[in-house]
């Protein structure tokens, strides 16, 4: 309520409502200069006032009256007018008004909300005698509404609003972090220097994950500290620059059970640094050499997650800055709670991401084999860093006869289920490849396996078998994008392979085609994530990939193939923004082949003379290849392996020698029973053949085929 120093001092009409808009200022005939409305409480001076004064009506516009006209209340209030012919005039909502007595502009500030109290006369700016009540000039009164701590209610409200806005902005910044470092960085950047001049964040080491019981002892490690200072550069304004702490806090702190720090952490609530509990806890946490500001200039806030305390944050202010207020403890509690819960979730997410990443990596080959006559390179890219699990896979499986199976597949989806199904299909493909089944039969069995895994377990797959001796490749496709063959001269072509139906459809046949695989050519197998995206269809992407391969081959010339690793990197570089909608598996095979002059092949009848004939044929081949130094070892091992084959074979036995970087010998027969190495007794006449092979050969093995088996061994050649 506002007092009006008019002739009707006994009347106190109600203030005008805030909803009413201010009427234009009117000049009263014979009256002094009108008064202007001010919007903030200004501290006044006691005693009468002279000249022009300002009246502040809290909650509504100020009224302006002549000397002989009393104030008239609003008609909406239901009150009668205070005197006949009274005229109510409202001050305009202007930024300033002219004062006749002071000769200067008076600023008008925004209004503050709060209950009205007694008016206080104010001396005009610029000095002068205070205005006296009842003069021709309208007197102005200021409502001095005070907050709980002596501050005006409006200032306190603004202060609380700023505090709430800061908490909201800080928590949003903390919540944006997805991993541990981002969350801690968000806390530090949100509080320094707005809330504190320095912050130290300690976290438990190691951090417990989920329901894991924390390990003993309870150790806190300094995770991050931010400290800024203001520097006055000559000719420039004050700027913020990093300021390393000359007395750094302790890196590690072991929390003693029953100690002061343990009690503060157990209490969960933030405490001021000058409290009895914090005075003993802070030196234990920061170390005895680290200074702690006195008064309310330090806050120790425990970080409690969902189940336990996982750390602590220390907020510090400099002596030249005002100390923390009691409400700042609530701010620190909010920041600590959001940070601790965010860290809890980040640790859980990190564990899940680690499990998913390890699962994906274990489903893919750690390294590719290096079979004879072919060089291999591969790449795998997840769909996104935040979703590292997918269903794409690739594989290279050595087969008997120096052949190699090349496999690439894609399971629908990007989840742990897709990765698990991919792992089962990859294992099934490896098992089927070990049986030396034709490519179309491998896909048929994969289709049956996918149906056994459940409904809607669909995948695409391409299975190819390369023979370096015949320089041929056999390919079968199950709904997968076709491979691209890059020839030595730089020509790239999309191989025409029957598309087939995806694995898991059931009831379909798969068809295989046999194509030439010339030496020096490169076969590229890939998944649809490389060529298909929201910005292009799959066939447009395949054509762009073919053109990219041809352009890359032109850089190395017609007589040289581009390096495999560089070729894979260049292919992935064609991906632009928005092209990563799916994970990508890439397998590149460079066909070197084996020259016919480095291959010797014979058929041996299953008779007692076969081992002797095999020794003679091998000796001649080694002499032709200038490898006579291996004759003794090769003849001994061939004699043992051929003897075992003749014992069980019913059809002719095959013998093949391959000269590459090693000498490989392969003996095949029609018996499916694989030989097993055993330890012979002193009285046994046999059983020592495979023991000799194991001791003399660099590698050896036995593989079951659809029509028998192959036993092979390798010996190193001279450099």
TrEMBL record:
UniProt keyword terms in alphabetical order: Hydrolase
InterPro entries assigned: Bact_Sigma-Reg, GAF-like_dom_sf, HATPase_C_sf, HATPase_dom, PPM-type-like_dom_sf, PPM-type_phosphatase-like_dom
Gene3D superfamilies: 3.30.450.40, Histidine kinase-like ATPase, C-terminal domain, PPM-type phosphatase domain
Bias (Low complexity): 27-38, 80-94, 107-121
Record carries keyword Hydrolase: yes
Coiled coil: none
Sequence ranges of Basic and acidic residues compositional bias: 1-11, 61-79
Residue ranges constituting the PPM-type phosphatase domain according to the UniProt record: 374-591
The protein's name in its UniProt record: SpoIIE family protein phosphatase
Annotated spans, Disordered: 1-134
Statement: the UniProt record of this protein carries the keyword Hydrolase: yes
């Amino acid at each position: 309520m506002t007092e009006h120093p008019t002739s009707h001092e006994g009347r106190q009409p109600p203030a005008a409502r805030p909803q009413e808009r201010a009427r234009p200022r009117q000049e009263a005939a014979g009256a002094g200069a009108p008064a202007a409305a001010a919007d903030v409480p200004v501290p006044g001076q006691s005693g009468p006032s002279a000249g022009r004064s300002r009246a502040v009506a809290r909650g509504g516009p100020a009224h302006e009256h002549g000397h002989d006209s009393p104030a008239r209340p609003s008609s909406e209030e239901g009150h009668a007018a205070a005197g006949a012919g009274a005229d109510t005039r409202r001050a305009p909502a202007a930024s300033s008004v002219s004062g006749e007595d002071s000769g200067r502009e008076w600023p008008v500030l925004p209004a503050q909300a709060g209950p009205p109290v007694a008016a206080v006369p104010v001396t005009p700016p610029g000095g002068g005698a205070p205005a006296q009540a009842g003069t021709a000039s309208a007197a102005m009164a200021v409502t001095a509404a005070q907050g709980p701590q002596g501050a005006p209610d409006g200032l306190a409200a603004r202060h609380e609003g700023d505090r709430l806005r800061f908490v909201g902005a800080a928590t949003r910044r903390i919540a944006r972090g997805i991993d541990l470092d981002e969350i801690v960085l968000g806390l530090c950047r949100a509080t320094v220097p707005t809330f504190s001049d320095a912050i130290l964040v300690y976290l438990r080491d190691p951090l417990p994950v989920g329901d894991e019981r924390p390990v003993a002892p309870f150790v806190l490690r300094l995770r991050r500290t931010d400290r800024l200072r203001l520097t006055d550069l000559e000719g420039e304004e004050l700027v913020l620059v990093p300021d390393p702490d000359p007395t750094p806090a302790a890196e590690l702190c072991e929390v003693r059970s029953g100690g002061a720090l343990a009690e503060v952490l157990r209490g969960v609530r933030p405490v001021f640094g000058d409290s009895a509990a914090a005075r003993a806890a802070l030196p234990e946490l920061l170390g005895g050499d680290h200074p702690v500001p006195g008064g309310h200039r330090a806050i120790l806030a425990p970080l409690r997650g969902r189940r336990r305390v996982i750390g602590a944050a220390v907020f510090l202010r400099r002596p030249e800055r005002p100390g923390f207020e009691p409400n700042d403890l609530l701010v620190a509690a909010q920041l600590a709670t959001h940070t601790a819960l965010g860290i809890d979730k980040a640790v859980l997410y990190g564990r899940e991401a680690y499990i998913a990443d390890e699962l994906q990596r274990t489903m893919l080959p750690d390294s590719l084999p290096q079979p004879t006559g072919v060089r291999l390179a591969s790449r795998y890219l997840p769909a996104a860093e935040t979703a590292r699990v997918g269903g794409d896979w690739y594989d290279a499986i050595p087969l008997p006869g120096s052949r190699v199976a090349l496999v690439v597949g894609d399971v629908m989806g990007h989840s742990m289920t897709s990765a698990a199904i991919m792992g089962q299909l990859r294992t099934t493909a490896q098992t089927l490849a070990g049986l030396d089944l034709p490519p179309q039969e491998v896909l048929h069995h994969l289709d049956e396996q996918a149906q056994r895994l459940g409904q809607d377990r669909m995948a695409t797959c391409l299975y190819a078998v390369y023979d370096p001796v015949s320089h041929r490749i056999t390919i079968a496709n199950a709904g997968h994008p076709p491979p691209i063959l890059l020839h030595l001269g730089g020509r790239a072509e999309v191989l025409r392979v029957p598309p087939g139906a995806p694995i898991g459809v059931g009831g379909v046949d798969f068809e295989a085609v046999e194509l030439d695989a010339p030496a020096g050519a490169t076969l590229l197998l890939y998944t649809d994530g490389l060529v298909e995206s929201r910005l292009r269809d799959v066939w447009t992407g395949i054509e762009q990939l073919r053109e990219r391969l041809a352009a890359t081959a032109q850089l190395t010339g017609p007589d040289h193939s581009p390096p495999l690793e560089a070729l894979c990197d260049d292919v992935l570089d064609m991906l632009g923004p928005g092209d990563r909608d799916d994970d990508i598996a890439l397998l590149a095979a460079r066909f070197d082949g084996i020259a016919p002059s480095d291959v010797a092949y014979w058929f041996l009848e299953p008779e007692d003379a076969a081992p002797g004939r095999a020794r003679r044929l091998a000796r001649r081949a080694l002499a032709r290849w200038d490898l006579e130094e291996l004759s003794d070892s090769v003849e001994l091992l061939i004699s043992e392996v051929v003897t075992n084959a003749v014992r069980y074979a019913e059809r002719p036995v095959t013998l093949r020698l391959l000269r590459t970087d090693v000498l490989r010998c392969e003996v095949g027969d029609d018996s499916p029973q694989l030989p097993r190495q055993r330890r012979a007794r002193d009285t046994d006449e046999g059983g020592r053949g495979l023991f000799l092979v194991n001791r003399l050969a660099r590698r050896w093995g036995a593989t079951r085929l659809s029509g028998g088996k192959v036993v092979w061994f390798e010996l190193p050649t001279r450099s």
